[in-house]
Amino acid sequence: MDFEAARVKMVDNQIRTTDVTSHSVLNAFLSVPREEFVPAGARALAYVDTDVEVAPGRFVMEPSPLAKLLQLAAITRNDVVLEIGCGTGYTAGLLSLLASSVVSLEVDETLAATATETLSRLGYDNVAVVTGPLEKGYAPEAPYDLIFVGGAVDHVPADILAQLREGGRLVAVIGHGNASRAKLFVKEGGAVAENSHFNTAVKPLPGFAKVAEFVF
């Protein structure tokens, strides 16, 4: 399979057609070999516009919503980024080309080890993969200019929002299925404002389900 040609076709047919116009985002998708971040048996699916399962319940996100979310994040080469939900490292590879440095958090140690090996082998040297509960973020390297939540969540915990730098942004998909919304959170004057941008459907991340509350 000609993966380079498939990569160009993915960008032209799946990403540009969903109103992604950021040159830096488009160039990142043209550069990062998605086939390296999926299981060997799924490489033929690497450039299909779908989520690719890499572990039970864990996926490499579908290209078109991922590109829209990265564009929404408005990443600059000066940004220090926390990615929540590293998986096998594909989004971290994209972020590495857009930002100054990336801390990529993963709860699954096997996935984290796979991501570390792949990212290192491909030369994405400004990414550090760390392990821990996704819903806690990664305070040791905070504050961050951008926090990118790599899957759908019920809510964004206060512990994570507290890790934003003043003026920092957080991008997340809130909700379930086709009714979920891409949201941009911005920290200004110590407070966090939330803006809703577009409907999208991405796979959920573990650890973010709201705890049921008793009503008396």
Describe this structure in words.
The protein has helices at residues 3-15, 23-31, 63-73, 90-98, 109-122, 158-161; strands at 52-55, 58-60, 80-84, 101-106, 127-131, 144-153, 164-174, 181-188, 191-199. The chain has 216 residues and is of the alpha/beta class. The protein has one domain: Rossmann fold (3-Layer(aba) Sandwich). The strands form two sheets. A seven-stranded mixed beta sheet has the order 5-4-3-6-7-8-9, covered by helices on one side. It has a two-stranded antiparallel sheet with strand order 1-2. Strand 1 and strand 2 form a beta hairpin. Helix 1 (3-15) runs antiparallel to helix 2 (23-31), helix 1 (3-15) packs across helix 3 and helix 2 (23-31) packs across helix 4 (90-98). The longest helix is centred in the middle third of the chain and has 14 residues, at 109-122. The termini are far apart. The model has no long low-confidence stretch (mean pLDDT 94).
